Structure formats: C-alpha cells, structure tokens
Amino acid sequence: MSLLVAMLHLLLSVYIFTFLIGVPTNILAFCTFCHKVRQKATPIDVLLLNLTISDLVFLAFLPFKMKEASDSFAWVLPFALCPFTGFLFYVTIYNSTLLLTAVSVERYLGVAYPLRYSLWRRPRYAAVASVMFWVVTCLNLSIVYIMPYSQWRKGSDGGHSNSSAPAPPPTTCYLNFTEDELDILLPFRLELFLVLFCIPFFISCFCYVNLILILSRLPNISRRRRLRCIGLALSTLIVFAVCFGPYNASHVVGFVRKESQEWRNVALLFSTLNACLDPFIFYFSSVAVRSMLKNFFGNVAPKLRILGRGRGSHSLQHKPSKAEKYKEAAPP
C-alpha cells in the first residue's frame, strides 16, 4: 500500500510540474509560430506549430489524469470522459514522435541536399504530412477509445450481465483488463512499439547522425553554429529516447510476459515530461522563438527595474520615530 501511495504522489507531482511549466511555454511557442506562419511560413515552422498544438491538447487533458491519480486510479468523473481522455492522451504522445521525426528529416534534407531540397521545400507539404500524422495516430489508437466502452458493455467484472438493468461503468479507466482483452491489447501495443516508436526513432537517428557528420566536415560554418546544431541534434535524440523509450519498452515486456506491466504508469511519466521539454527544443530550433523571447524579456526587464527602483526609493524615505511623533504632537 505504501508503494502505491508513493507512486500516486510521484504521478501527481510530475503531472502538476509538467502542467505548470508546459502550459505557459507552449502557449508562448504557439503564439510565436502562428505569427511566423502568417508572415512567412517554412516547413519546420508548420511542423513545430503542429507539435505545439499536440502538446497543448495533451496538457488540456492532463488535469483529468491528475484527478485520476488523486483518487487512487478510481475514475469518478463522467465515464464519457474516460475513453476521450485516454484516446487524446496517447494520440498526442505518439503524434509527437512522428512530428519530431519529420523535423529531423527536414533538417537533414536541408543540409545534405540544400539545392535539390529547396525546389521541393513547401510549407503545404509539411501541412499535409502533419494531417497524415494525426490520421495515422488516431487510427492506430482508436482501440484506446473503444476498449472502455467494450468493458462497460461486458460489465464491471469482465463478464456479461445477466440482469435486465444496464451494467454500471467500470470503476477504473483503461487500467484493468481480462485475459481476452489482453489477447487483443498486447499485440496492439507491440505494433505501437514497432510502427510508432522504432521506425521513427531509427529514422531520427539516421538523420541526426548523418547531420552531425556533414556539419563536422563543413568548412564554411562557424564553430559556434556547428556546436549549437550538433548539440541540438544530440539533445533531441536524447529527449526522444528518454521520453518515449521507457513507456514503449513496457509494451515489449508486457507482450513477452503476457501481462500488463504495473510500472507502465511510472514509465509514462517520461512521456508526460516531453510536453514541457519540447519548448526548449523550439527555442534552439527556431529563430522566431528566440527573437520572441528576447523581445519579451527586453520589454519586461526595464519595467521590473523601474518597479524595483520605485519600491527602493519608497523604502528609503524617512519615517519619523515614535519620539519625533511625540514631539510634534506635544503642545508648545
């Protein structure tokens, strides 16, 4: 029981931290990319805008997961929110893997084939690719939406209800499964691991490794810019592996052991943190984000200094002591 309580506290803490950091940073990134796309859109701006939208959708439904963790995994909200929340929660996670992969391909093609790629470098192609990613992830994750309703129809105990009254909804949301349900879920999760994690990860590794090799051989690029690009490539790969690797590894372990692993929720925390790590990738990936932050802090900093000086001067004003007040109040 103490282990369960500790895990619930950990889940709730990471959820709250991700929400508090991710919401303002992603809103700032969203406003920046919307402004940039309206002015002069580039493929990477379109991809990063969709990645920001994916993170914001994820963060919008994160409070429901907070409520679930605070209630010890019991689903006390209206049951219609259960399949919808779970569906969008996992769709946005896997949509992020595809969008990060597309960003890696765009960067690699721009460096490896600059002239040839410039002829095909159109924002509408990135928009079409983004729509396709949403469709692919929604189709692949549709079982997450269907499974809770299937459990409700079978009854909360996993068997068909014999009474004429409708069965009550399950007390948990996409958490406990029967053996028949696992026979469907475990191969499905393995497919997610292979198609929506391994293939994107290997493509990203290929693109970023070759990008680093090309940049290390270019003579007409400054050392600072080369190191920044290499650092961005390595950090993106690390974020990709750390954020999405543990949860997808649980799919393989569960398939081999023929059971749903209890540590899946803890592994999912790494994927949750991705929503507040993406804005830092945006900062180093986009000149627009860096200039927006520079202008923002450039406007805020003088106001803070003026406010601080006003408070300091007010505190330095002479305040009469009690003796002086007594002398002033005494009659002549």
TrEMBL record:
SUPFAM superfamilies with a match to the protein in the record: Family A G protein-coupled receptor-like
Listed Gene3D superfamilies: Rhodopsin 7-helix transmembrane proteins (1.20.1070.10)
Bias (Basic and acidic residues) ranges: 321-332
GO cellular component: plasma membrane
Transmembrane segments annotated in the record for this chain: 12-34, 46-64, 84-105, 125-147, 192-215, 227-247, 267-289
One MF annotation (Gene Ontology) recorded for this entry: G protein-coupled receptor activity
Location of the region described as Disordered in the Swiss-Prot/TrEMBL record: 311-332
BP GO terms, sorted: cellular response to fatty acid
Compositionally skewed regions (Basic residues) per UniProt: 311-320
Highest taxon of source: Eukaryota
Membrane-topology descriptor: Multi-pass membrane protein
Keywords of the record: Cell membrane, G-protein coupled receptor, Membrane, Receptor, Transducer, Transmembrane, Transmembrane helix
Boundaries of every G-protein coupled receptors family 1 profile domain copy: 25-282
InterPro entries xrefs: GPCR_Rhodpsn (IPR000276), GPCR_Rhodpsn_7TM (IPR017452), GPR40-rel_orph (IPR013312)
Compartments it resides in: Cell membrane
Name of the protein in question: Free fatty acid receptor 3-like
Organism of provenance: Stegastes partitus
